[in-house]
């Protein structure tokens, strides 16, 4: 995303946020209209303008919209990361649901749908860029009009001289003293405006048309001077200027135009009220008559500048006269109810994190929940990498992240049952589920899956199952009552069909799966156990009703478990990840394993964002002799392919390139060692080597050494701007 688009996105978010504040303020002023003084009303509208210009304000817990900026970036990013490299065959029967850091999931990708989705996102990005240019053009045009107005006026009044009428000057001095203004504000005679006005923030000047001098009633003249001086004292000149700036920036928002007009109206009301506080109620009739007399002269269309503080149109003057008629000393006071309304309007206006719940790219419908299991936006912000499927090996960590107190089985059929992993799955923005995979000592037996969720069993289980399926898969669900001894529940059947797909080399046939679950509620939370699974007419799991009943009756809180081992022991292998990184706590744990603080850039540009990251055992480890080295592998989305970023303490490839200018690749397509030459680059004053390979799949790698740590960036399937992306990886810093 370019700088212009980012800036426009912030402007758009601010404008939408303030629009809600404007609507709420209009409603509050309508409800409490007779209880709030005009000066308070004017002050509230001034807050609207300030809100339009404030870049960042403290977040509050009143979330009416979701973060618009993040929504847009999620839409324009092209999520083209493949779960498996092209050409890899799908296993037709055995499905491994255990997701680890190396992406060992057997899911399918529909290439045609990916291309269509990428084109759709590209179109959205182009449209947004066009709107960004339209916005800046409109802002420049409107700003130019205002600046031209200033220039033309200054040109006309450049050689004006101050009024030398002693009677007028004496009257002006009297008004200055009466209103307690210390600054000397000169009066100029000029017919650019048909009504009196005051201009200038630093050096204010009052301009009056020549015919005003013919007014013999000094009271009327004093009313005019007092009104214009009060504009200066109330700093209306400054607020008028920031209103012009806000209008130039948010010109596309009709509610901002309404707000500006409201400010003009209440500015005059408030100024009149302030003048009447000085004159007293006994002079309000005379002051009103002055306004009426002037309105007769100025009711036709006149030259008018947005930059001037001057009399308004006839409709607004009628409103001012009505306000003057009803004026009473002390009208600035506010009732308790109105004060609460003002406080509400102010708090809503300065809420920075307004959330617009829009249609997600994956068309998942958001739902709400009344319990504490849903992560708040503040909690979600704690994630460095908010993966839709988080894999944990610690039940206490799962409870902490989810925020839900749940139960787990204390019985599993088979000898020495234990857990292989915990998967916390994001079903939607505010709905999560936990999938626990348990296995026993008999390796021939399939894992048993136990689920925990909070909403409708059929829909929740469909979402859980779809998280393991290709986007092409169609899942149908049905339910019927299923009662075990002492437990009333449901039998949920999911039927999944994955259409056949033709590649350049072979055809993957259609696959049909059937999964059956027993689901029941316990203390308001839903639990389910998968008791039967069929893949392409082959049954791979079938629990007896007796075992289902024993599992369901055995659920307890984690601290009460005695018979099932819920500690995860991972196999020591370079093919299996040791731990994934999602939050800062995970990162600190990873640092201890790695022995260093790694770079971990979360976003490179609008197309390249991190998907997963985790610690694994590096290939130079001597597992047999228990000499284990660790490395950090991070995986990024990219529209042209996929990117892997690695950090480790050792790299024979780098050492060989640094010494010889090349390294020897042992594993090649023809099983013959191959010399890979590298190009030497200088990026950010660091010696970086680049080499390319075409075996298996086209790859480009950049590798360098920094502070004793070896870093490398792999680009799979080719990337046109690999150098620019690699440069940002090189320049990135570790997370504090």
UniProtKB/TrEMBL annotation:
Ranges where the Peptidase M56 domain occurs: 11-324
Transmembrane segments: 7-32, 130-153, 237-260
Coiled-coil stretches noted in the UniProt entry, renumbered to this chain: none
Keyword Membrane: yes
Key word Transmembrane present: yes
Matching InterPro entries: Beta-lactam_resp_regulator, Peptidase_M56
Protein name (database record): M56 family metallopeptidase
């Amino acid at each position: 995303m370019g700088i212009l688009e980012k800036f426009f996105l912030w402007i758009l978010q601010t404008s939408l946020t303030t629009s809600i504040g404007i609507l709420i303020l209009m409603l509050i002023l309508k409800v409490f209209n007779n209880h709030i003084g005009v000066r308070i009303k004017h002050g509230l509208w001034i807050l609207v303008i300030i809100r339009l210009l404030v870049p960042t304000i403290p977040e509050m817990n009143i979330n009416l919209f979701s973060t618009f900026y993040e929504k847009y970036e999620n839409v324009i990013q092209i999520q083209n990361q493949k779960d498996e490299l092209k050409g890899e065959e799908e296993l037709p029967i055995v499905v491994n649901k255990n997701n680890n850091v190396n992406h060992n999931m057997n899911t399918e990708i529909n290439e045609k749908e990916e291309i269509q989705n990428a084109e759709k996102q590209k179109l959205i990005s182009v449209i947004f860029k066009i709107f960004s240019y339209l916005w800046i053009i409109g802002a420049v045009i409107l700003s130019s009009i205002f600046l031209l107005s200033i220039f033309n006026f200054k040109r006309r009044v450049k050689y004006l001289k101050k009024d030398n009428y002693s009677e007028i000057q004496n009257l002006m001095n009297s008004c200055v003293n009466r209103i307690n203004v210390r600054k000397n504000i000169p009066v100029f005679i000029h017919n650019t405006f048909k009504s009196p006005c005051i201009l200038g923030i630093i050096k204010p000047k009052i301009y009056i048309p020549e015919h005003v001098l013919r007014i013999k009633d000094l009271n009327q003249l004093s009313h005019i001077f007092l009104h214009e001086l009060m504009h200066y004292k109330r700093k209306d000149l400054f607020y008028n200027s920031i209103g012009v700036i806000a209008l130039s920036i948010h010109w596309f928002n009709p509610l901002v135009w309404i707000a500006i007009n409201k400010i003009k109206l209440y500015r005059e009301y408030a100024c009149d009220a302030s003048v009447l506080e000085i004159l007293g109620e006994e002079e309000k009739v005379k002051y009103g008559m002055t306004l009426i007399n002037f309105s007769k002269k100025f009711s036709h269309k006149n030259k008018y500048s947005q930059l001037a503080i001057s009399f308004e149109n006839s409709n607004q003057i009628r409103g001012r006269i009505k306000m003057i008629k009803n004026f009473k000393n002390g009208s600035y006071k506010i009732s308790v109810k109105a004060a609460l309304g003002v406080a509400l309007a102010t708090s809503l206006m300065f809420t920075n994190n307004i959330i617009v719940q829009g249609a997600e790219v994956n068309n998942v419908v958001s739902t709400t929940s009344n319990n504490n299991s849903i992560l708040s936006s503040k909690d979600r912000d704690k994630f460095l990498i908010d993966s839709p499927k988080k894999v944990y090996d610690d039940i206490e960590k799962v409870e902490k992240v989810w925020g839900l107190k749940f139960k787990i089985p204390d019985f599993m059929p088979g000898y020495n049952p234990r857990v292989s992993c915990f998967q916390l799955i994001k079903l939607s923005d505010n709905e999560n589920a936990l999938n626990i995979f348990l296995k026993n000592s008999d390796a021939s037996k399939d894992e048993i899956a136990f689920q925990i969720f909070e909403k409708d069993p059929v829909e929740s289980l469909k979402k859980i199952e779809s998280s393991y399926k290709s986007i092409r898969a169609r899942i149908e669900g049905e339910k019927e009552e299923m009662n075990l001894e002492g437990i009333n529940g449901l039998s949920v059947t999911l039927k999944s069909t994955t259409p056949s797909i033709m590649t350049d080399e072979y055809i993957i046939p259609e696959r049909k799966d059937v999964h059956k679950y027993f689901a029941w509620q316990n203390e308001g939370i839903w639990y389910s156990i998968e008791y039967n699974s069929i893949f392409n007419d082959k049954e791979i799991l079938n629990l007896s009703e007796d075992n289902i009943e024993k599992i369901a009756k055995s659920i307890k809180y984690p601290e009460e478990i005695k018979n099932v081992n819920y500690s995860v022991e991972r196999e020591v292998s370079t093919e299996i990840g040791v731990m994934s990184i999602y939050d800062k706590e995970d990162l600190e744990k990873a640092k201890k394993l790695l022995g260093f603080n790694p770079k971990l850039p979360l976003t490179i540009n609008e197309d390249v964002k991190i998907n997963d990251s985790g610690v694994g055992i590096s290939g130079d480890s001597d597992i047999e002799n228990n000499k284990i080295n660790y490395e950090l592998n991070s995986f990024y989305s990219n529209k042209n392919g996929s990117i892997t970023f690695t950090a480790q303490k050792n790299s024979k490839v780098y050492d060989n390139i640094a010494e010889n200018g090349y390294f020897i690749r042992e594993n090649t397509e023809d099983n013959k060692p191959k010399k890979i030459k590298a190009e030497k680059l200088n990026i950010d004053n660091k010696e970086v080597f680049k080499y390319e390979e075409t075996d298996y799949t086209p790859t480009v790698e950049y590798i360098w050494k920094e502070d004793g740590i070896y870093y490398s960036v792999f680009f799979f399937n080719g990337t046109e701007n690999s150098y620019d992306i690699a440069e940002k990886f090189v320049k990135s810093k570790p997370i504090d």
